[in-house]
Specification:
Blueprint lengths: L1 H10 L6 E5 L13 H12 L11 H12 L8 E5 L7
């Protein structure tokens, strides 16, 4: 709801607001916060991703969309876009 509210607030000033939600990423921040069961679950789910070699989201998966948002994608606003290779479709 925050993204939609912010889009309404800032839209009148020509500012678009879009949230980007990447899937699980292989970073130092991902594993320490997770218990052993959660890590095993994510690795299993990641292995099932139809669009990724590892199932984990790489920064290279996210950057092209961000570039699009700041150029031709300015009309996209009030949305949360999940960039996760189908991870949330499971």
């Amino acid at each position: 709801h925050y993204t939609r509210a912010a889009a309404k607030e800032f839209g009148a000033r020509g500012i678009s607001v879009t949230a980007v939600g990447p899937g699980p990423m292989d970073t130092p921040f991902f594993y320490p916060a997770e218990g052993a069961d959660a890590v095993a679950y994510h690795k299993t789910a990641a292995a099932l991703s139809p669009f990724s070699k590892t199932g984990l989201t790489d920064i290279e998966d996210v950057v092209p969309f961000i570039r699009h948002l700041v150029s031709d994608g300015w009309w996209i606003t009030g949305q949360t876009i999940l960039i996760n290779g189908g991870y949330t479709t499971k």
